[in-house]
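DM from R.C. (forwarded with permission)

"hey, sorry to bug you on a friday — could you get me a structure for this? deadline for the figure draft is monday and I only need the backbone to look sensible"
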Amino acid sequence: MTNSTPGFWRRLICLIYEFLLILAVLFAASFIFHFIVTDTQSTYFRPLFQFYLLLIMGYYFTWFWTHGGQTLAMQTWKMRVVTTDGNGLTLKQAIIRYLLALIGNSLFGIGIFWALVDRDHQFLHDRLAKTRIIYMG
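My reply, with the result:
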């Protein structure tokens, strides 16, 4: 088992797969939210709904990262997120990584494309959160 950094394209394809999985999770969560909050015309509905979806995504990612270091897509592509020391993530580290990834990806994907210029080919959110993705193959 190697602990090398997976290639940029491997991580990008994993992100696409992750997007499809999180889309399914958010679809199910949206159904539940709409079932509970039936007044979709109220002024508070949209911001509350968006915050709810951010919380669901945050819970999804932080739970997987703190319980084995792999989301479902990362398991398929044989990758794991660890600290720079090679240890598993704490809840605090996972939350920081999630929030930094959310910000970096919201800015036209700068957090992802950072890996093309980074000396260790890490995403910007990994660099800032003191985490890294390793290849488990």
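R.C.: lifesaver. The first helix runs from residue 8 to 36.
me: no worries. DSSP finds six helices and two strands in the chain.
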